[in-house]
Write a structure and sequence with these properties.
- The chain has one domain: DNA polymerase, domain 1 (Orthogonal Bundle).
- The chain is built from 5 helices and no strands.
- The radius of gyration is 12 Å and the shape is globular.
């Protein structure tokens, strides 16, 4: 694996781990830790875009099935929706 890709994965894990709310820190960091090493570069880019959303949008998407029109339906959002800690 390239060093650039490895650094990108670490950046994504860091962003998932330090969100601002403890609940989202735990949820997103657990998700990223589980799947990040199995993702290709395209999925990693989708993950990066997903992590750009505010905690409230992701929380509502995960817990209340509220689909924000900006959250794309792709492999990352599907995996996240099915993910359980």
């Amino acid at each position: 694996m390239s060093k650039k890709l490895e650094l990108f994965k670490k950046k994504l894990l860091y962003r998932a781990s330090y969100r601002g709310t403890k609940e989202m820190d735990i949820l997103l960091s657990s998700f990223v830790k589980k799947y990040v090493n199995d993702m290709d570069e395209i999925e990693l880019n989708y993950l990066e875009k997903f992590l750009d959303f505010e905690d409230e949008i992701i929380y509502n998407f995960y817990n209340f099935n509220k689909n924000d029109k900006n959250i794309e339906k792709n492999e990352i959002s599907k995996k996240f929706k099915k993910f359980k800690i």
